[in-house]
C-alpha cells in the first residue's frame, strides 16, 4: 500500500497570507490527524477527522482549521499567517475498527516557512 | 493532564553498543496506550510499537526491546548492538482509551551512533 502523502512538501508564505495543506491517507484509513512540529514546542496535536467529522482538537487558535472529504483526504488551512506558524506540519492516518483507532502512520510532512 | 517526559536530550554511542532511551509518563487514566516513534533525518515519523496499559509484558523485536513498568510509569526502549542507521530522534507518546488519534509526545531523544 502507498503511504501517507502530503502536498506540498515545502512552502514559503508571507505574514498575513493563508495556506492550505493537503493530506492523502493510506487507502482504507478513515482517521486523519494533523500535528505541528517546531523546535520550541515539539510535536503538538492540531486536530483529528474521522468520517468527515472533527473528533478531537488541540489547543490552537481558530486560525487553524481543517476538513476531511468523503474519500478521507484531508486539508488543513491556516489563515492570517504569523512568523510563529513556521513549522513542519505532519499528517497521520489510522486504520479504524468501529469507533476505535489504532497506531498512526505519518506522512513526510509539509515544511512551512513564514517570512 | 497527560504528559510524557524524555529526560535524555541527546545520546551518543559507538556502533555495537547497547543504548536505552527513557520515557516517563503521567496520566490520570487507568487505561491508555503508549507508543514509540522514530524520526530519521528525512523527517517522517516511523511507528515502532504500541503498548496497551493492561499489557505489561516486555516486548522484543529484533534488536529492539521495550520495558513497560506501570509501577514507575515508565516505558523504556533499548536498542541492542546499535547501528549507524539507528541514528534518529526517538519519540515516546501517550494517548487515552477513546482513541489513538490524539497523541501526546515527549520532547524526543536524539540518538547519534558513530561508526
Describe the structure.
The complex is a heterodimer of chains A (115) and B (115). Chain A is mainly beta and 115 residues long. In chain A, 0% of the residues lie in helices and 56% in strands. Chain A has strands spanning 5-7, 10-13, 19-24, 31-38, 42-50, 53-57, 64-68, 74-78, 87-94, 96-97, 100-101, 105-106, 110-114. In chain A, β7 (64-68) and β8 form a beta hairpin. By secondary structure, chain B is mainly β. Chain B is built from no helices and 12 strands. In chain B, strands 2, 5, 6, 10, 11 and 12 form a 6-stranded mixed sheet that branches. A 4-stranded antiparallel sheet of chain B has the order 3-9-8-7, with no helix packed on it. In chain B, strands 1-4 form a two-stranded antiparallel sheet. Chain B is globular, with a radius of gyration of 14 Å. Chain B starts with a strand and ends with a strand. Chains A and B meet through β4, β5, β9, β11 and β12 of A and β6 and β11 of B.
Number of helices of chain A: 0
Most extensive interface, residues per chain? A-B, 28 and 21 residues
The rounded Rg of chain B comes to 14 Å
Order of helices and strands of chain B: EEEEEEEEEEEE
